């Protein structure tokens, strides 16, 4: 498994409660750009439809440099490959518990592009401040621990 892109913004803005692995329906030039690492998922989100389909919106895949007139649109909607039961579960949780579906990372698994999506609950401003404070304390403790080992 080779991680191509991580969505750090999602972990900063949301509590990720559950994760799913989804395949992505791509064209030829899109997979070539993903393999080159030219993908951005920081502003992307997932939408489910009534007929049990899931789409990722605002996922930016840069145009392939060697692509000709058959190059792809950079931010088009792309269909996600999930089991029907997973889509039903995602759809019901977003409606009932007012959760959001956000992509957390893009990676290659056995030559295929996969997307990890998470059911997420939005963080309040005070939650973000608490997380930053805890992160700072851990960093200081690591720094102090490193000094004593010298």
Describe the structure.
The chain has 150 residues and is α+β, with helices and mostly antiparallel strands. The protein has a single domain, classed as Small protein B (Small Protein B, Chain: A, Beta Barrel), CATH 2.40.280. It is 34% helix and 35% strand. Strands 1-8-9-2-7-5-4 form a 7-stranded antiparallel sheet. The mean pLDDT is 88.
At a glance:
With 150 residues, this protein is of the alpha+beta class.
Chart the SSEs and their pairings:
Layout: E1 2-6, H1 8-13, E2 14-24, H2 28-35, E3 39-40, E4 45-48, E5 54-57, E6 60-61, E7 78-81, H3 84-96, E8 100-109, E9 112-122, H4 125-148
The CATH class is Mainly Beta
List low-pLDDT spans. Answer: none
Straight-line distance between termini? 36 Å
Write down the overall geometry: globular
Provide the succession of SSEs.
EHEHEEEEEHEEH
Q: Can you give the mean pLDDT?
A: 88
Task: Output the radius of gyration.
Answer: 18 Å
CATH topology: Small Protein B, Chain: A
**Name of the CATH architecture:** Beta Barrel
- Percent range for helical residues? 25-40%
């Amino acid at each position: 498994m080779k991680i191509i892109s991580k969505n750090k913004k999602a972990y900063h803005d949301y509590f990720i409660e559950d994760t799913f692995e989804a395949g992505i329906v791509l064209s030829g030039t899109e997979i070539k750009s993903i393999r080159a690492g030219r993908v951005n998922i920081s502003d992307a989100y997932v939408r489910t439809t009534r007929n049990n389909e899931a789409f990722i919106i605002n996922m930016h895949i840069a145009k392939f440099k060697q692509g000709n007139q058959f190059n792809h649109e950079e931010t088009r909607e792309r269909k996600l490959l999930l089991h029907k039961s997973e889509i039903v579960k995602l759809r019901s949780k977003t409606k009932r518990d007012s959760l959001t579906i956000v992509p957390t990372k893009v990676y290659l698994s056995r030559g295929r592009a996969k997307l990890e999506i998470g059911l997420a609950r939005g963080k309040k401003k005070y939650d973000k401040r608490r997380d930053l404070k805890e992160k700072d304390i851990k960093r200081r403790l690591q720094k102090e621990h490193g000094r004593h080992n010298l």
